[in-house]
Amino acid sequence: MRFPYILAIDTSCDDSAVAILKEDGTIAADIVYSQNEAHAPYGGVVPEISSRKHVSRIARAVQEAFLKAQLQPRDIRAVAVTFGPGLIGSLLVGVQFAKGFAQGLSVPIIGIHHIEGHLMAACGDSSFPSPPFISLIVSGGHSAIYRCDKGYQFKTLGETRDDAAGEAFDKIGRMLGFSYPAGKILDDLSELGDADRYVFPVAMRSKTTLDYSFSGLKNSSRLLIENLKKEHGEIKGKVLFDFCAGLRKAIVEALLSKAFMACRNQDIKHLVLGGGVAANLLLRSEAINRGEQEKIQVYLPPKNHCVDNAVMIARAALRRLQEGQCHSLDFNVLASVSVDITIDQLLGQ
């Protein structure tokens, strides 16, 4: 089948994302309704608020996508939607809307794993590698390293044993009094600081495991914040900038040291980054620099496609649809699910 236009939906967490892509990968519409303001008072995502916001916004987001693309629903030839992992209530909103849309138009539907979407977020670049490649996905909920092999079969090589990197940024940012989400604020302030003034721990630096751990960093940050408040009364100015810069340096070092270790261990020369933290300025520049030093090609998604979006879901879906894959309307959402097994196994097809 041909797919002149595909509609994609992602409501895995707190953003209502809708995209329309042409068959050649050109973006006709890219809509994201953020919920940051709604969750900021709580310092993190509240699942019930998230799902209710999706209910009130999903139809409007789809309508806006059609207006942006200057298309009609009848122009759509397939629908893609994130089925997991994520918040169960949020996932249900997107999946049920997508199923109804697909059924109403009698077009194919395909469920996409959210992590696979992030893995494919950079594939709009014409130089994007064919498998095998290593991927580092870093966000508020995920910090993990994957190997992608022929047929886009994924294998988890390492993952966080506690907090994800984005989660660590947000929790430590809250200790400093920053609003949610704190990652962008910390990144901006870090640009003004001395990253060597305060030294933060990098967990499992010398170990051969590809797993991550950020709980020790979080505790170390809490103790340093307490000491700095005793010493200065208030953490601001250069002290704040230096704190942020040191924290960012430690997190980036932890992330990249394991990612490049995976490339060396697997003898693979391509590293793909994805996830919200992939927008971090230091992570992006250091990934490129280390890639040049180690002769490993690094691929970065555009900053606006690092956070959750539906373009990445559409890109992953187009490839699978063109290979003849699609799913029946009775597949379920899954709040927690590995990307290691095939999509058809996951959905019971």
Task: Give your account of this protein's structure.
The protein is an alpha/beta fold and 349 residues long. The protein has 2 domains: 155 residues, ATPase, nucleotide binding domain (Nucleotidyltransferase, domain 5, 2-Layer Sandwich), CATH 3.30.420.40; 173 residues, Nucleotidyltransferase, domain 5, CATH 3.30.420. Helices cover 43% and strands 17% of the residues. It has 11 helices and 10 strands. It has a 5-stranded mixed β-sheet with strand order 3-2-1-4-5, with helices on both faces. Strands 8-7-6-9-10 form a 5-stranded mixed β-sheet. A hairpin with a 5-residue loop joins strand 1 and strand 2. The radius of gyration is 20 Å and the shape is globular.
Per-chain topology:
Blueprint: E1 5-10, E2 16-22, E3 27-33, H1 36-39, H2 47-69, E4 78-84, H3 88-105, E5 109-113, H4 114-119, E6 133-138, E7 143-149, E8 153-159, H5 165-175, H6 183-190, H7 215-232, H8 237-266, E9 270-274, H9 281-294, E10 297-299, H10 311-322, H11 343-347
Parallel strand pairs: 1-4, 4-5, 6-9, 9-10
Antiparallel strand pairs: 1-2, 2-3, 6-7, 7-8
Helix pairs in contact: 2-3, 5-7, 6-8, 8-9
